[in-house]
Amino acid sequence: MVFFDTNILLYAGSNDPKDQEKKVVASDLISALDFSISSQVLQEFISNALGKKSLGLGESNITALIASLSEKQVVPVTLDLIRRAIILRRRFQLSHWDSTILAAAQELGCQTLYSEDFNHGQDYDGVQVVNPFR
User: Which stretches make up the PIN domain (predicted)?
Assistant: First the structure.
């Protein structure tokens, strides 16, 4: 199982012409891989879908995403997860948000995190980052 960062979901749904190449890559990943996400990723998706008008996303896209995730593992952000994220943040000098995503991937035992926001190829305590847009 792999873990998806928010940008994979955003690019898959984006209607912005400048995102079309990334949209194809992200859509292919979503179709081909068994993936998990966290409640944080969902919150970030919703916030960006509503806030970045250039993406062309809205309520119908949010509803469709939530419906499509009914059989996926979605990790809640708990106090224990935040504690692990703090350790990761300090160790790897990451933002709080990025370290929380890593902690969620670790909680599920995911060995691969797809994201464009981390160092491609780096291993973060057993979670290797793949930037599929390189």
Answer: 2-117
